[in-house]
Amino acid sequence: MLRKYGAEKNACVSCDNVAMNNLHAPTGSAAATEATFANLHNDSFLRACLRMSTDHTPVWLMRQAGRYLPEYCATRARAGSFMGLATNRDYATEVTLQPLDRYPLDAAILFSDILTVPDAMGLGLSFAQGEGPRFATAVRDEAAVAKLAVPDMEKLRYVFDAVSSIRKALTQDGKGRVPLIGFSGSPWTLACYMVEGSGSDDYRLVKTMMYSRPDLMHRILAINADAVAAYLNAQIDAGAQAVMVFDSWGGVLADGAFQEFSLAYSARVLAQLKRTGPLGETIPRIVFTKGGGQWLQDMGELDCDVLGLDWTVNLARARALVGGTERRPGKALQGNIDPNVLFAQPAQIAAEVAKVLDSFGKPHQGSGTGPTHIFNLGHGISQYTPPDHVSALVQAVHSHSRAMRA
After folding, report:
1. Is residue 76 among the annotated active site residues?
2. What is the tens place of the pLDDT at every residue in 331-343?
3. I want to staple 125 with a disulfide (CB 3.0 to 4.6 A). Which of 65, 102, 119, 258 is the partner?
4. What pairing do the DSSP bridges indicate for beta strands 180-185 and 108-109?
């Protein structure tokens, strides 16, 4: 169960209770589900998200549009900077589609960054060449926290315009090639960057605030959660067909602290998310916590459809804990091959793919719902990955997973 700690958590208890009460609620009507699938040439990703049978295990990759692709690097050079790329609708559309033109992937993911929300709060996001993200203004004291507020979503219009543009570009013969995933960073992950001012090796500043001034940390997280929910709902309105919360740094927390400062606020986001899109279609919700394998049972209580797993988690164990059965609700599982496998040769890649698929076992088949798997990396793809090796991985996933169902 999601554990509550301290009086300062009262502000988010009501939202968390909504999430718990809706844990096993239907994700959408049968008509909405049919509408979801009718609009797609390839519906395998959405079907797997909803624990429905597919003829192969769908695959997409975290950071699948990125620096490992020469065409991406060429487009980024034209854009002049990462933010020039991410804030331009046409460039964002172009790079989102680039991996789909190379590989038979089963989903597209919006090209953007997890830190767009705090940027819209006025913190000044930038990316130096060869470096990670950095904020011009860090949030490290009571005065800085007091200035925070859920931003006007119009400041993020460039993201929503990109979502609509990508959906249009994906359309062929009146149907989408594959579904489009929208996303955001989790409240905790956003807070890490906001307090540290950039990436961190030890999270000293954000953890100092968390332990010494938990009231300030809860204030940041509550604002972040409400902002992330509004942001993802706007992506759904613009055309996102699934949404994902990246809790990239949840795994750096201690037991207890994870439940209080990360999990509870992911639950707050989920409690506010729209369950259906503009046409009544079901919108699956995915949560990925890097380093969160020890809290699988806690995460199994989240009001989401899919749990993403990093490469440290045994898929068979995860399936037994939270995957459900044909008669008992559970979560679809997403993941979880080590991204560094992609530096091996194609034969070794295929062997490792088979290990991951075999570890999960045969997914649900037939009518109704049951345990399902979406193949992905355990974290983002490295910029040094040979593009041909990605092709070998995708081919191996499709071929081996089809053979498993034969």
Report:
1. yes
2. 999 999 999 999 9
3. 119
4. parallel
* Domains by residue range for the chain, with CATH: 7-338+368-385 (3.20.20.210)
Q: Residue 143: in which H helix or E strand, if any?
A: helix 142-146
Could you identify the residue written with the tokens 């998200």?
Answer: 49
Per-residue buried b or exposed e for 321-344, using 16+ beta carbons within 10 Å of the residue's own CB: bbbbeeeeebbbbbbbbbbebbee
Owner of token pair 């929300």: 117
For 292-318, write each residue's pLDDT tens digit. Answer: 999 999 999 999 999 999 999 999 999
- The yes-or-no answer on residue 193 being catalytic is yes
Per the annotation, the verdict on 3 as an active-site residue is no
Looking at 193, 265, 298, 303, which residue is catalytic?
193
Angle at 328 (CA atoms; ends 325, 333), nearest 5 degrees: 55
Among residues 47, 51, 76, 268, the one annotated as catalytic is 76
275 included as an active-site residue = no
pTM of the predicted protein model: 0.91
Among candidate residues 43, 47, 51, 63, the one labeled active-site is 63
